Amino acid sequence: MGSSVSREVQAAVPLVGIAVAGVGAVGIATALCNRASRDQRLVESCSSTTGRVVLVTGTAGFIGFHTAMALKKRGDGVLGIDNFNDYYPTSIKHERAAVLEKAGVVTLKCDINDSDMLSKLQERFKFTHILALAAQAGVRYATKDPFSYVNSNVSGFVNLLEVARNAAEPKPRIVYASSSSVYGLNTKVPFSETDVVDNPASLYAATKKSNEMIAHCYKHIYGLSLVGLRFFTVYGPWGRPDMAAFSFTKKIEKGEPIKIFQGPNESELERDFTYIDDIVAGCVAAIDTIRPSTKEKADLKVVNLGNKDPVTVSYLVDCLEQSLGKKAVRNYVPMPPTGDVYKTNADVTKAAEEFGYAPTTPLAEGIDKFIHWYKEHYKNGMDQKMMDYVPM
Q1: pLDDT score recorded for residue 35
Q2: pLDDT at 38
């Protein structure tokens, strides 16, 4: 029996983290059982009643979490991957992944630069679509760790496209995250997909613009179908701790002052805050409408997903105060030269025409929903790393 069991153990052990040396009969049985259970969960995660099997990168992230949940609920097969990086505290990432697991969506710990793993997953589960949301996020953090943006947003994106273009037919269709940041220093509003976007204000924005240019190459040369979604300041339950809604809420609750950036002559910054449910609707519609990855039919386009109603950051604070029932200590300061822009404003005409996209959530309503989640989720307090976390 020794040789066949040994081969099984050699295959099982790396998946469950048990060393081969010294594993007894009980350990072998446990390893095999755990591997079989995990394998079954992977199969169930990718099981589909719609014909769509979607690889979602970044499922431990904010948008990836919500969109993976929506896709699974409607019957799509969904498999998630995430590298669980510590740009912000990982506790909320693991919590998102755990909620997805209960809903039947497995999140594997995998970096999008791991071409071997991605190729094996594509070969086995034959993804019809890839929703590429994994990225190094944040505008200001690029001044601290620029290479993380190149590694994830450029190298990782190219790696995903290489896996897709080398996949067996039919090749997966790819919907990927771009950003409103690509509009950079543009002053014409609202921002339209036909605007020239050659003046990025941050390295993050430059990497997202590079994604759009790389997508053009892979459509032109290999016939991959690619749709880029330019997200505008997304907020809501399970949101990112580095974003204003979350970080301001934490400070208001603790009675600490919040910094509100100002432009020239003490002008107010404006943002097109977009509620997560509206963004998810756009992501799902993009998946439903993207054409096949063939030379003859492949799509190549970018689409704004925003709320189309920009408001001042001060108004965001007003909404938070109303929902929390507590006043903020406001500290207005000049905007630092770290890549932020003065105003974002989405023209969503194209999204409406192509996706039927129609954002329906006013900021005050969305903030009420966020605060309800926040109070419930942290009713017993935050872990220390989240409590101590201060975004750039």
Answers
A1: 80
A2: 85
